[in-house]
Amino acid sequence: MAAITASMVGELRAKTDAPMMECKKALTEAGGDMEKAEELLRVKLGSKAGKAASRITAEGVIVAAVAGNAGALVEVNCETDFTSKNDMFLAMANACAKLVAENNPADVAALSALPYSQDGYGPTLEDVRKGLIGTIGENMSIRRFKRYEGSKLASYLHGTRIGVMVEFEGDEIAAKDVAMHVAAMKPVALQSSDVPAKLIETERSVATAKAAEDAEKAKAEGKTPQSAEIVTKRIEGSVAKFLKEVSLFNQAFVKNDKQTVEQMLKEKATTVKGFTLYVVGEGIEKKVDDFAAEVAAQVAAAKGG
Questions:
Q1: Measured between alpha carbons, how far is 278 from 61 in angstroms, rounded to an integer?
Q2: CA 128 to CA 3: how far, in whole Å?
Q3: What mean pLDDT is reported for the chain?
């Protein structure tokens, strides 16, 4: 029997996108014949992994794990909501969070290279991911993760689509309440001074455009437009209101809107050092198939021809 080398396994994997161990098994069964091994993999996996690689993964789950004084929040994506409920997919996603918490990988590539076996696939997380793509028939991807270590951690998952992890010192119940608050109110920073400058400039641009629109309307109605000083105050007032609405400490606490989150934390002698909020598919452009538009386009093209 021909010796199965690492380069042969690598070549077959590049051709089929199948897991490394599956490539090795196929080559062994085929006696080293590359074409026969490729056919064996197509029979077993249907070449699903390779075909799925370019498909958009905007569904999925947010998972969390805490191991000792370390914890992680991870987003793992797939193509459909149906697969996001698949037990094999969920097992892999939860393993991702545990691996991040325990091993502190530098990035998704490093996470994917960690040892992990599941459902007959392995020996790495990446091999399991590709194996499950072949088994389930959908593309899957590990999108992002955030790891914390050294402080107390509280997490909250709203179903599987929204996840929050809070780094804190003090009362655990208060921290859990903050995690739930973040999931509901979606602040972008702890305090106003931490809000990204780009978001502030966008809000200022919107307020400026609104002020200009109001000035044009007043002019058209024969009214005296507001002075530049008043307009500036209005714009900055809008920005200040925005900062209050998107900074955690300034938001009205969801369980008691008579006090801010900062006031509640002070009352509970608790300090929140940071938080991470993940929403499944946030920022991913989903593909929307418009069958009617596609048919219309084809008819128009046929007439043009």
A1: 10
A2: 25
A3: 87
**Which tens digit of pLDDT belongs to each residue from 43-86?**
666 545 455 555 556 799 999 999 888 999 999 999 999 999 99
Burial of residue 125 (number of CB atoms within 10 Å: 0-12, 13-18, 19+): buried
In a 3-state reduction of DSSP, which class is residue 273? strand
Backbone angles phi, psi at 167, to 5 degrees: -100, 125
% residues pLDDT > 90 (the chain): 59
Q: Would you state the torsion angle of the CA atoms of residues 206, 209, 210, 215, taken in this order, to the nearest 10 degrees?
A: 160
Could you report how far apart the first and last alpha carbons of the chain are, in Å?
58
* Cα 61 off chain centre by: 8
Closest-CA residue to 151 (of 68, 261, 65, 94): 68
Q: How far apart are CA 18 and CA 27, in angstroms?
A: 12
User: What does each C-alpha distance from 128 to 76, 99, 121, 158, 249 come to in angstroms?
Assistant: 13, 13, 5, 27, 41
Give the whole-angstrom CA distance, residue 74 versus residue 66.
12
- In the numeric block, the tokens 């024969």 are attached to 222
Residue 157's pLDDT band, with cuts at 50, 70 and 90, is very high
235 and 211 in contact (C-beta within 8 Å)?
A: yes
Spatial separation of the C-alpha atoms in residues 287 and 248, rounded to whole Å = 33
Window from 51-65, 75-89, 122-136, 251-265 with minimum mean pLDDT: 51-65
Q: Which residue has the tokens 């947010």?
A: 62
